[in-house]
Give the backbone structure.
Amino acid sequence: MVDLLEALMIIAFGVSWPVAIYKSLVSKTAKGKSLGFEIFIWLGYIFGITRKIIQLSQGGEFTGLFWLGFVFYILNLAEISFDIILYFRNRRYDKLAEAE
């Protein structure tokens, strides 16, 4: 049950990142984004992945739900990493717009 709840939480977060990425791509502005917030979430995913690795090294079970959660941690980490990259791209666009 614990793995199921964790997997559902990670999936819920994972569904929201494509929306955030789409908004970052389309808006071409960093206004309204918080880099600090995204970095803290990124660190949270790193901690979650580390927890899964430690759990396995201590004899944790290889259940389907365990792997589902692990895969979504990796996917979410990739998505937020991409959104962080877009933040820097969009910040550059903001600076160019201000210079005009």
Summary: The mean pLDDT is 90. The two ends are 56 Å apart (CA to CA). The helical segments are 2-27, 35-57, 64-99. Residues 2-8+34-99 form one domain.
